[in-house]
Design brief:
The complex is a heterodimer of chains A (212) and B (238). Chain A is an alpha/beta fold and 212 residues long. Chain A has helices at 44-52, 73-78, 95-105, 114-120, 136-149, 166-181, 205-209, and strands at 6-15, 18-28, 33-37, 59-64, 67-68, 80-83, 154-158, 185-189, 200-204. Chain A is built from seven helices and nine strands. In chain A, helix 3 (95-105) packs across helix 5 (136-149) and helix 4 packs across helix 5 (136-149). The radius of gyration of chain A is 17 Å and the shape is globular. The relative contact order of chain A is 0.21. Chain B is mainly alpha-helical and 238 residues long. Chain B has one domain (19-237). Chain B has helices spanning 4-11, 19-33, 35-55, 60-83, 85-93, 95-100, 106-120, 122-135, 143-168, 175-201, 207-237. In chain B, helix 2 runs parallel beside helix 7, helix 3 packs antiparallel against helix 4 and helix 7 (106-120) packs across helix 11. Classes of the chains: A alpha/beta (212), B mainly alpha (238).
Chain lengths: 212, 238
């Protein structure tokens, strides 16, 4: 393999006088799915927020294709799809309006796949319904529909399966596996047992941080 | 039924909006769907003008004298009231994170959001101001000065207020802090705004005052989006 897509070197993060991780180093390559594991409060979300560039409360180096992340911020953001704790869905807008806004903000989202994506996440027929009338799971599905529309190589997904039913989880797992097979990279946290076998690599924060 | 989705694709416009237009359209749509937020500052504005004569004095000579100040202060406070909610809901539902992770220039997106805010508070306030002027016996000579000064001044209020809103969005109770941060910066706008109306009333040229208000707006247009963007990154990073 050539240079790793994402290279994390000696990452250190402290929160409220508690060290979340220290000397955390790992590489993420093309075609890999990395699952960040750890108990509640071990810093999974914090790590994903740091890696996505949202949080700057860290020491250490993060490289995107061998360039420090802060000196290629725009190129990095162009290659990134981030699914956060909050799904980023406006309650008073309809699923279609939400996705249109995402497409306006993120050029990697292909709006022509709108109907396909909505059908895939099971929201056909709900295009014109305000999101506050949808269930929690359906709201998260609106945001997950971006995965079907995105051309971004790096996906950072924070608990993407919360409030999603079994069938939906299986579908999303398949989608993640497909993305990895096509050379994409996925970093995710989840408490689900992922049935992806060898494809997946696990990074355990409990061991690294010594909180276990 | 089977070919229904296909028909939909055919009729639906799938053009992607640019970042500025996309953000502006979305914010206008959001306010349109939540009309109460829209009306709140306007009601406040109207209430001040209604209650002021009742509380102080209904004497028309006295009211005419204080009218420019009262209308301007009411407009300023109405803008300030609406400021806290500018980024609050975006912060809470995670859309602000998505905004910051967008490769689109944040400057344009932020400018669009402030423009939307102004179109929904500052602009209606400006359009309503002559009505308040009449209620407070402002002589007709001062009307053009009132509208023009508000037209130039309220966008500056929105721009400066947005910096405060961006800095405090990560805090649970940011409302009070916004006022403390932003009020000192509002004072120059207030001074030149009211002074321009006084000048118009006494028949002096208002060009100089308008030029200063315009200069403050121009400075705000260039500088404020940068400050707002930086403040948002700090707030979300915490």
């Amino acid at each position: 393999m050539s240079t790793p897509r994402l290279k994390i070197e000696n990452l250190f993060c402290e929160r409220d006088d508690r060290i979340l991780f220290d000397q955390l180093s790992f590489d993420v390559n093309e075609g890999e799915v990395v699952q960040i594991e750890g108990q509640n409060g071990s810093g999974k979300t914090t790590l994903l927020r740091i890696l996505s560039g949202l949080s700057r409360h860290y020491e250490g180096d993060i490289y995107w294709q061998d360039v420090p992340i802060h000196s290629c911020a725009e190129a990095f953001r162009e290659s990134l799809l981030y699914f956060g704790h909050q799904p980023g869905v406006k309650a008073v807008l309809t699923p279609e309006e939400n996705l249109r806004w995402f497409a306006a903000m993120h050029p990697t989202i292909d709006l022509s796949k709108l109907d396909y994506a909505l059908a895939k996440v099971g929201l056909t027929g709900y295009e014109d319904v305000p999101c506050h009338t949808l269930s929690a799971g359906q709201n998260r599905r609106v945001s997950l529909a971006r995965l079907y529309m995105s051309n971004a190589p790096l996906w950072i997904l924070d608990e993407p399966f919360t409030a999603i039913d079994k069938k939906g989880v299986a579908q999303n797992e398949a989608l993640i596996a497909e993305h990895a097979e096509q050379g994409g990279t996925v970093l995710l946290t989840t408490h689900h047992e992922l049935a992806m076998g060898d494809l997946i690599r696990r990074v355990n924060l409990d061991q690294l941080a010594g909180t276990s | 039924m089977t070919n229904h989705p296909a028909e939909k694709i055919a009729v639906r416009d799938l053009k992607v909006d640019g970042p500025f237009w996309g953000a502006l359209k979305r914010d206008l749509l959001l306010s349109y769907r939540r009309k109460s937020d829209l009306i709140n500052p306007l009601i406040f504005f109207l209430m001040v003008a209604t209650l002021f004569p009742l509380g102080v004095s209904p004497d028309s000579v006295f009211l005419a004298e204080v009218a420019p100040g009262v209308v301007w202060v009411a407009a300023l406070l109405a803008t300030l009231l609406s400021m806290d909610s500018l980024f609050r809901s975006d912060f809470e539902d995670g859309t602000l994170e998505q905004l910051l992770l967008s490769p689109q220039p944040l400057f344009m997106v932020v400018l669009a959001k402030v423009l939307a805010h102004w179109m929904l508070t500052g602009l209606p306030l400006t359009l309503m101001a002559p009505l308040l002027g009449v209620m407070l016996f402002l002589p007709a000579d001062g009307m053009s000065g009132l509208v023009l000064s508000l037209l130039l001044g309220t966008p500056t209020l929105s721009l400066v207020g947005a910096i405060g809103a961006a800095l405090t969005v990560g805090l649970r109770k940011g409302g009070v802090l916004i006022s403390l941060l932003v009020l000192p910066l509002y004072i120059p706008v207030l001074i030149f705004g009211t002074a321009s109306i006084q000048a118009a009333l006494t028949g002096l040229p208002v060009g100089g005052y308008m030029a200063i208000l315009g200069a403050m707006l121009a400075l705000g247009l260039i500088m404020a989006p940068l400050a707002i963007s930086a403040a948002l990154r700090i707030s979300v990073s915490g």
